[in-house]
Amino acid sequence: MKNNKGIFAFTASAALLIGLIVYRGIGSRVDAEAALTTQTEAAAIPSVAVVHPTLGSPSQEIVLPGNAQAFTDTPIYARTNGYLKAWHVDIGSRVQQGQLLAEIETPELDQQLQQAEADLNSARATLEIADITNNRWQKLVAKRAVSMQEADQAKSDFVGKQAMVAANEANVRRLKQLQDFEKVTAPFDGVITARNTDIGALINAGASKELFHLASIQQLRVYTSVPEVDAAAVRNDTRVTLTEDAYPGQTFTGTIVRNSNAIDQTTRTLNVEVDVDNPTGRLLPGAYLFVHFRSPGASHSVTIPSNTLLFRSEGLRVGVVRNGHVQLVPVSIGHDFGNAVEILSGLTVKDSIVVDPSDSLTNGVLVHTL
Fold it and tell me: Rounded distance, CA 77 to CA 352, Å?
C-alpha cells in the first residue's frame, strides 16, 4: 500500500513537472510571436527625415545682359552745297559744343549771296524814289493840284517797293544762314565715332550720306530686358551695379531711370533703361554689359529645400507630418534659388516637411520622424 502511494506521488509530480515545462514552452513561444508581430508592425512604419521652413526668402541677385548706348547719338549732315574744303577732327576726337569740325567751300552760294545783296541795294534805291514821289503826290492832292487817283497810285507803288525790299532782305538773310553752314560745328560735347567724307568731296545738302557721327559718352544708357516674373521688382531710381568682361573684378554703378511699363508680347520681358555715369569714357557705346540687381523676397513667404518637393499629376505637393501622419499639401512657388525654393502659400515655419519623399508617399500614411 505504501509502495502504491509512493508510485502515485512520483507519477503526479512527474506529470506536474512535465505540464509546467510544456506551459512555459508554449508561453515563451507565444510571447516571442507577439514580440515579433510588434517588431514587424513597427518596422512596417517608414521613418522620414524632416526639416522646418525658414521665414521669408533671401533676396535674389538677378544678372541680365544689357546693351550700352551713348546718351546722345546723332549723325551730322551738311546743310549747304559745295565741296569739302577741310576737316579738323577724325574718329576718336573729343569735341566741345560749337567746335569746328569741317569747312565747306560754296562758290555758287557766294555768288548767289552777292547777287541777292545787289538786288537788295537796287530795291532800296527804287524804294527811296517811290517814297519821295509818294510824299510829293500827297502834298499836291491836298492842294487839289492832282487827282486822288494819281495820289493813290503813287502810294500803292511805294507800298509795293517796301514789300520788294522786305523780300530781298529775307533772301539775303537766307543765303547768309546757308553761308554760315559752310562751317560744320559740333551740336554737343562728345566723341567723333565716324568720319565719312574727305577733302574735295562733293557735298549735297540734305543728302543721306552723313559727314560725321557724334556720340555723347559722358553718360551711357544701358537697356536690358527683365523677365516678366521679375518685372514687379523693377523700381525707378533704384541703384544697380554693372560689370563688363573687359574689366574683370570691377563694378560700375547705375540707376534705373525708366522702364517701358509694358511687357513685350514676343519676348515676355520688360524693357528697362539704366543710366551710368561714364566721365572717364572707360565704358564704350555698344558694349555688352551685365546688369546686377536684387529682387527682394516676399515678407509673408517661407523657404524650403528643393528636395522636399513632390511633382504629382494634380500639381506640386509637399509632405507635411502632422500627428504622426503625412499630409500632402499643395504649394505655390515664388522664386527658385536652385537648392531652395520660395513658397508663397501653403506652409508655415512650424510645419515638419519630409525630406527626399518617396514617389509612393501617400496622403495619411503613418510615419516616424527622425
Answer: 72
Q: Is the dihedral of CA 187, 191, 193, 194 positive or negative?
A: positive
- Check if the beta carbon of residue 229 is closer than 8 Å to that of residue 267: no
Nearby residues of 219 by Cβ (< 8 Å), 6 or more positions away:
71, 275, 276, 277, 278
Return the residue matching grid coordinates 544708357.
221
DSSP state of 296: P
Rounded mean pLDDT of 18-36?
62
Short-list 222, 184, 200, 202, CA closest to 74: 184
DSSP 229: G
59 Cβ partners below 8 Å, 6+ apart? 294, 295, 296, 297
Give the H/E segment covering residue 172.
Answer: helix 148-180
DSSP secondary structure string for all residues of 107-127: HHHHHHHHHHHHHHHHHHHHH
Angle, vertex CA 174, rays to CA 173 and CA 176, nearest 5: 65
Q: CA-to-CA distance for 357 and 208, rounded, in angstroms? A: 69
Q: What are phi and psi of 34, to 5 degrees?
A: -65, -40
How far apart (Å, rounded) are the C-alpha atoms in residues 61 and 143?
97
Q: Residue 226: enclosing H or E segment and its boundaries?
A: strand 212-227
Lowest mean pLDDT of 32-46, 49-63, 266-280, 301-315, name the range.
Answer: 32-46
357 contacts: CB under 8 Å, gap ≥ 6: 48, 308, 310, 319
**Contact (Cβ atoms closer than 8 angstroms) between residue 342 and residue 58:** no
DSSP string, 41-101: HHHHS-EE-EE-PEES---EEEEEEEEEEEEEEEEE--SS-EEEEEE---TT-EE-TT-EE
Q: Where are the beta strands (DSSP E) in 323-366?
A: 325-330, 332-336, 340-345, 352-354
Parallel/antiparallel/unpaired status of strands 368-369 and 47-48:
parallel
Q: Which residue has the cell 546722345?
A: 72
C-alpha cell recorded at residue 6: 509512493
Counting Cα atoms < 13 Å in the Cβ hemisphere of 285 gives 21
Alpha carbon distance 191, 183 (integer Å): 18
What digits encode the pLDDT tens for the residues 223-252?
Answer: 999 998 888 888 899 999 999 999 998 999
